[in-house]
Design goal:
It contains four helices and eight strands, in the order αααβββαβββββ. The protein is of the alpha+beta class. It folds into two domains: 6-110, no CATH class; 146-206, SH3 type barrels, CATH 2.30.30. The strands form two sheets. The protein has a five-stranded mixed beta barrel. Strands 1-2-3 form a three-stranded antiparallel beta sheet.
Length: 207
């Protein structure tokens, strides 16, 4: 399968996954129906940054898992792309064009051993230029002076807002941070990491 083009490899993987599921569960729509659209968005974002899929570890399983969250036929759009220095991966934030169809979600694609991918500035979203030394120093100084409103391991309230929809839930904060700083959160049962902005003591908002 290594010699195949990434799109063909993905379609074959999803086809095999759907066949295996059909043997053990009642017939239903393939969870990979939205995966091809998602793959095209990711491929276009990588190509615009001069990144080849040969630089990435296979992410077919991750793609199918995320596609299961999206109803068949829903149109998707890419909101943000960033390099995660901690997890050494490229993070794609996607959402349904119809705000009522699904919540924003992350697709994480791991790379082959990059310490920091040259197409991304560390910890900054796509489109941001690299900070110069003076800018970095100002940012660090501001970060140190901000009082911490959330701390690692603390249970906080995470809110999601999209259109007229607002959802809140209790999650574990993985980082410390002051007002307007970005932190990582995760359900206490585990699962995917959700990035959020600190609003107040014990309150964060999903990005």
């Amino acid at each position: 399968m290594h010699g195949m083009k990434p799109v063909l490899r993905f379609l074959l993987f999803c086809g095999l996954t759907a066949q295996a599921s059909a043997l053990t569960a009642p017939a239903k729509a393939s969870t990979c129906d939205s995966g091809q659209q998602m793959h095209q968005l990711v491929e276009a974002a990588l190509r615009s940054r001069g990144i080849s899929e040969d630089d990435l570890l296979p992410f077919d399983e991750e793609l199918c898992s995320r596609a299961a969250q999206v109803r068949d036929g829903e149109s998707l759009e890419l909101m943000k792309v960033r390099w995660d220095q901690v997890l050494r991966s490229i993070e794609f934030r996607l959402r349904c064009k119809s705000s009522a169809a699904c919540l924003p979600f992350l697709l994480r694609v791991r790379t082959r051993g990059f310490e920091r991918h040259p197409a991304f500035s560390n910890g900054r979203s796509s489109g941001d230029g690299p900070a110069d030394g003076a800018q970095t120093e100002r940012t660090l100084t501001r970060t140190l002076r901000l009082p911490k409103m959330v701390r690692p391991g603390q249970m906080v309230t995470l809110i999601w807002e999209q259109g007229d929809m607002r959802i809140s839930r209790r999650v574990v904060c993985l980082d410390g941070g002051g007002k307007d700083q970005e932190v990582r959160t995760r359900s206490k049962e585990g699962g995917r990491v959700v990035r959020a902005r600190v609003l107040a003591e014990g309150l964060v908002k999903a990005l």
